[in-house]
Amino acid sequence: MYLGTNFLPPVIHPTQQIVNHTFSTTVVPHIHPVHTTTVNHHMYQHKHYCPQTASCAEECCNQHINCCNTCAPAAVPPVMPVSNALPNAVPNAPGFGGMGGPGFGGMGGPGFGPGAPGFGPGPGPYMGRRR
């Protein structure tokens, strides 16, 4: 004979506490502004140079003193243009050849005319005939 399944009253245990943790993320933006300035520094070095050149100039001065006759005024003949004359040269002036003043060339004073020793176109005492 089968008596069937017997059931006893339930045994109740104390409630077990289970804590289920859930997590959520909330983003709170915190803004900290930062500004960067780039400063470019330019140095201009101004170097001054003084290149120097040199030149040379020469001056030549002449002084003609008439010692023949200090009382008579010197006659200045007119200036004649010459094709090969130097600038500022006065051709045929007294004492510069040609028909110049007394004692200096052409019709000069005694001892200084043509043929006189060492001063005219003729031979002098130490010179032979010109060729």
The count of strands amounts to 0
Tally of separate helices: 0
Main sheet characteristics:
none
Helix content: under 10%
Distance between the termini: 189 Å
Low-confidence stretches: 96-100, 104-108
Q: What proportion of the residues form beta strands (DSSP E)?
A: under 5%
Overall outline: rod-shaped
Rounded to an integer in angstroms, the radius of gyration calculated over CA atoms is 65 Å
Quaternary form: single chain
Average pLDDT taken over every residue: 73
Structural class: little secondary structure
Looking at this protein, list some descriptive labels:
0% helix, rod-shaped
Give the SSE map.
Elements: no helix or strand
What report would you give on this structure?
The chain has 131 residues and is largely without helices or strands. Helix content is 0%, strand content 0%. It has no helix or strand. The termini are far apart. The relative contact order is 0.07.
